[in-house]
Amino acid sequence: MTAMNAARLRAELVGPYAALDVVSSTGSTNADLRAAAGTGQTPDRTVLIAEEQTAGVGRRARTWVSPKGAGLYLSVLLRPHGVGFTKLGSLALVAGLAVTDLTADLGVDAALKWPNDVLAGPERGKCAGILAESVAAEETAVVLGIGLNIRPLGPGVEPGPGGLRPTSLAEQGARTTDRTELALLLLSALDRRERRWRAAGGDLAAAGLLEEYRARCETIGQQVRVMLPGDATLLGTATDVDPSGQLMVTDETGKPHTVLAGDVVHLRAVP
What we know:
The chain is of the alpha+beta class. It has two domains: 6-213, Bira Bifunctional Protein, Domain 2 (BirA Bifunctional Protein, domain 2, 2-Layer Sandwich); 219-269, Roll (SH3 type barrels). The chain has helices at 6-13, 29-38, 91-106, 179-199, 210-216, and strands spanning 19-23, 46-50, 71-78, 110-113, 117-120, 125-134, 142-149, 222-227, 233-241, 247-251, 256-259, 263-269. The chain has a seven-stranded mixed β-sheet with strand order 1-2-3-7-6-5-4, with helices on both faces. Strands 11-10-9-8-12 form a five-stranded antiparallel β-sheet. One of its GO terms (cellular component) is cytoplasm.
């Protein structure tokens, strides 16, 4: 396992990003940047990458398996001035587009599952997870975390909600698994996507990102089970994603619902 080339990453990415650091091991890159953001001293577009995470956390406090050298584990602190709080949820969708920009470049068949998963391969295993967390601070701040499986995780990894099994770029025939190269490609794609999103005030449609997201999102058109905050469950058909990144679901009685946050399980495609 070759360590990531931090000097190369800084040489090519500091400019679009304010700062970039690579650490050997940490509990969670998201937790580290959340703590740093609260001090007010960490600038917009600060990147932290870890070779290994020992306490990575996803949605609903689920742990993310982050073994040393098997993936790309990074977080970015963003201070998107001019983006209202209600639009911040769409940032995870922007990151999903950046990850699928990467998979397309690598020759990997991948699609998005609303709101924060990237699925790959004919069996649609989970290849990446995204977590955007707002930070309590004087100015708007968000920590955006991305965990990407590059090499097989090995036996013993539990499937996600709905039996979603993990997969990796290597298993799906990616043209390279060099983690430094992948970090460069992913962060460059995220830079382009996030600048458009920020300039449009967090509106996916105004940024020209909504139609692309709809085209890449396999949740739309699926019969779904949505696990909502408070342990409520919604069954229905996912019909669309709106400009603020919310999922539109029509339940079994024909009543429309707007879902801001929730875990989605794909049940089957609707004819």
